[in-house]
Structure formats: structure tokens, C-alpha cells
């Protein structure tokens, strides 16, 4: 008889680890799928192999990493079930990911899906009625098993068909973590992540920046935003310049380097060489301005910011030569630092 297979939605949080292991305990072959977007898990893409090895070493789980960024950005435009406290569309996020996982069943010859959801654990997305909506709208009702709370729910197809033994599944509910921690110990898992989510869409400050794009109050719109734009929104000092430009300014060497990596054609890069200082990008400068004079005014403002944030002399910002690179053209000019009261209102 061929082995039973399942796909687990693997967030990397303790619940998804335990749900995956609980099903594996029954001899079922589980493919753990870690979906990533610029809002969660994206750094994994820098070194997928190390992440896979670590997950295997710490939790005994084989994980497959899938980048769903482009479609996820589209989903954010108009999530039918709305947003949580911040810009977090948790219900539609889950529906979206389950839909993607469902589409993978055939390729992985898997019979059902697993999540680490626990009944009543989260206020919005893990109430019983919400769990029903998620199943319904992702068309996974008969396919979706939540092993940690299975005994509190109706039997799923996998249980009815005898693919998995319901008796060995659990009845966790509520916000307490003690049963999860005890189960982790039983599995020999000691090095597990803390409950904090790590999703940027649920972060009060960063999600506010992202929401600007989708509310039309940002120079880049949700119609043409790309993954690199989102990554730029999450680092450095951010300015909306008086003529409508978007400037990202590095706060340290690491951010300067990252800003350089994310540069695209059409961006203007500014920096200073005579003393330590920020690298800045005037993003999408080639397309955001219809008027060349407006573009030059913003570049001028950006030059003043570069010297303002470069290393001070005797505790004070001083002038310096700023290098401006636009496409193949490189020029430099001396600028005085901007006064704080001039640019404070540009900060976002
Ligand atoms: S917190 Fe973020 S990753 Fe988690 S369900 Fe909500 S939107 Fe999705």
C-alpha cells in the first residue's frame, strides 16, 4: 500500500511545528510548505538551504519554501474579509495560502492539508465561525485537518477514510501555551520560536507604511508596486519630498548596502565620499515626475539630507560634496545641510 501523504502549512511557529509532527507520528509523509512574501519569511530566500537544514535539525521536519509575493500583493488590494487591527488581512491571508496549498496536493500526491490552527487562540482568525469561513472560501472543507484541535471539530475526510487515526489527534483550545510546550518536550523539541508573529502587516508602524500604498497616499501605487519597493519601505529613514518624490536613506552601513542592492533602473542614488554618511535612493525618479524641474528640486532636497545625516563635525551637521548618480550620469556638488525644521514634515 502506498504511503499516505499530506501537506502542512508551515509558518515556522510552534503550533505549525507540533501539528506537522503530530501527523508525522502516525507514519504519514508530510511536506511542510513555508510560504514567503516580503511581509513574512522573505529573508529565508537569501539562503533557503540553510533554512531547510535548520528546520530538519531542530524539528525533524522537511520544509519546502514557496515565494507567493506577486499574487499576495494583488490579494492585498481588496481582501474580501477586510483587515485586523492593523493592515493584516488574516482571514484572506489564510484563505489565500490554503488555496495555494490545495493546488499543490496533486503534484505532491498528498491527500489532505494540515494547519497548526488552535480553536479560540486568536481573536479574529481562529474563532469557530471564522475557521468555517476559511474552509469554505478556500474550498478545503473536506480536506483540511487541524490536528491540534481536531477532536473539537467535525471529522474530516482524512479521518473518515481512515487515512489518519482521530484518536491520536488532540483537543487544544484557547490562548494558553502550556499544553503546546509540554507536547514540544515530548517530541524532544527544546529550541522553538516564541509566539510573536513576525508579520509586518501586523506591525503597528510598518503596516501603516504599507497601507499608504493601498490607500493611494504614496507615490508608488498598488498597481505598480513590486517586491523591491516593499523591501525598501521597511528599511532606513523614509521621506516624502515636497515635489512628490520618495526618498529612502540608510541609517547604517548594512542599510546602505541593502539600499544599493535594491536599486533599479530609473532610481537616483545619492551618497557622500569625503566622510561616513548615508546612501539614499530617490525611488522611481524617472517615472514619478512629469516635470523635470520638480525632479531637480527633490534631488536638491535629497542632497541637503545626505549632508545633514552624514558624520557631524564637533557635534554639528556640516556641508559637503554629494554624489548623484542617475543612470549613466554621475555628478557631484557641494550642499549645506538642511535645517531640521525644513524636513521634519517630510518624514514618514
Ligand atoms: S499575521 Fe500576517 S501572516 Fe499571519 S495570518 Fe495575519 S496577515 Fe497572514
The unreliable regions are: none
- The tally of structural domains comes to 2
Radius of gyration: 24 Å
Which small-molecule ligands are present, each listed once? iron/sulfur cluster
Strand content: 15-25%
Written description of the protein model:
It is a single chain. This protein has 348 residues and is α/β, with parallel strands linked by helices. The protein has 2 domains: 5-186, HUPs (Rossmann fold, 3-Layer(aba) Sandwich); 203-346, no CATH class. Helix content is 35%, strand content 16%. The chain contains 13 helices and 11 strands. The chain has helices spanning 14-24, 48-59, 69-75, 90-104, 128-137, 157-160, 178-186, 204-214, 227-233, 253-261, 285-288, 292-309, 340-343; strands at 5-9, 29-36, 63-67, 112-114, 144-145, 237-240, 246-249, 268-272, 280-283, 320-326, 329-335. The strands form 2 sheets. The chain has a 6-stranded antiparallel sheet. A 5-stranded parallel sheet has the order 3-2-1-4-5, sandwiched between helices. Helix 2 links the parallel strand 2 and strand 3. Helix 4 (90-104) crosses helix 5. The protein is elongated and about 75 Å long. The mean pLDDT is 94. The structure holds iron/sulfur cluster.
Give the secondary structure arrangement, pairings included.
Elements: E1 5-9, H1 14-24, E2 29-36, H2 48-59, E3 63-67, H3 69-75, H4 90-104, E4 112-114, H5 128-137, E5 144-145, H6 157-160, H7 178-186, H8 204-214, H9 227-233, E6 237-240, E7 246-249, H10 253-261, E8 268-272, E9 280-283, H11 285-288, H12 292-309, E10 320-326, E11 329-335, H13 340-343
Parallel strand pairs: 1-2, 1-4, 2-3, 4-5
Antiparallel strand pairs: 6-7, 7-9, 8-9, 8-10, 10-11
The structure holds iron/sulfur cluster.
Iron/sulfur cluster (SF4) binds next to α4.
Amino acid at each position: 500500500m502506498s504511503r499516505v501523504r499530506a501537506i502542512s502549512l508551515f509558518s515556522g511557529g510552534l503550533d505549525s511545528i507540533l501539528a506537522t509532527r503530530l501527523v508525522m507520528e502516525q507514519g504519514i509523509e508530510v511536506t511542510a510548505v513555508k510560504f514567503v512574501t516580503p511581509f513574512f519569511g522573505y529573508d529565508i530566500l537569501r539562503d533557503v538551504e540553510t533554512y531547510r537544514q535548520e528546520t530538519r535539525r531542530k524539528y525533524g521536519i522537511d520544509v519546502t519554501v514557496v515565494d507567493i509575493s506577486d499574487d499576495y500583493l494583488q490579494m492585498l488590494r481588496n481582501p474580501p474579509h477586510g483587515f485586523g487591527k492593523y493592515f493584516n488581512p488574516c482571514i484572506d491571508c489564510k484563505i489565500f495560502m490554503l488555496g495555494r496549498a490545495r493546488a499543490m496536493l496533486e503534484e505532491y500526491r498528498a491527500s489532505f492539508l494540515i494547519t497548526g490552527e488552535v480553536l479560540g487562540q486568536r481573536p479574529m482568525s481562529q474563532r469557530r465561525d471564522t475557521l468555517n469561513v476559511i474552509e469554505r472560501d478556500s474550498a478545503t472543507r473536506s480536506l483540511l485537518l487541524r490536528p491540534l484541535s481536531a477532536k473539537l471539530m467535525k471529522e474530516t475526510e482524512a479521518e473518515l477514510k481512515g487515512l489518519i487515526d482521530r484518536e491520536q489527534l488532540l483537543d487544544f483550545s484557547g490562548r494558553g501555551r502550556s499544553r503546546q510546550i509540554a507536547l514540544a518536550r515530548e517530541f524532544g523539541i527544546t529550541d522553538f520560536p516564541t509566539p510573536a508573529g513576525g508579520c509586518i502587516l501586523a506591525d503597528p508602524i510598518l503596516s501603516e507604511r504599507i497601507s499608504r500604498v493601498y490607500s493611494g497616499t504614496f507615490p508608488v501605487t498598488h498597481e505598480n508596486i513590486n517586491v523591491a519597493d516593499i523591501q525598501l519601505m521597511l528599511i532606513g529613514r523614509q521621506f516624502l519630498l515636497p515635489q512628490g518624490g520618495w526618498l529612502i536613506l540608510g541609517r547604517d552601513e548594512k542599510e546602505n548596502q541593502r539600499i544599493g542592492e535594491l536599486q533599479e533602473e530609473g532610481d537616483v542614488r545619492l551618497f557622500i565620499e569625503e566622510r561616513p554618511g548615508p546612501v539614499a535612493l530617490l525611488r522611481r525618479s524617472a517615472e514619478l515626475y512629469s516635470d523635470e524641474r520638480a525632479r531637480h528640486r527633490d534631488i536638491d532636497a535629497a542632497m541637503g539630507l545626505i549632508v545633514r545625516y552624514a558624520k557631524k563635525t564637533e557635534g554639528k551637521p556640516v556641508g559637503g560634496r554629494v554624489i548623484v548618480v542617475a543612470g549613466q550620469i554621475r555628478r557631484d556638488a557641494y550642499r549645506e545641510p538642511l535645517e531640521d525644521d525644513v524636513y521634519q514634515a517630510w518624514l514618514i
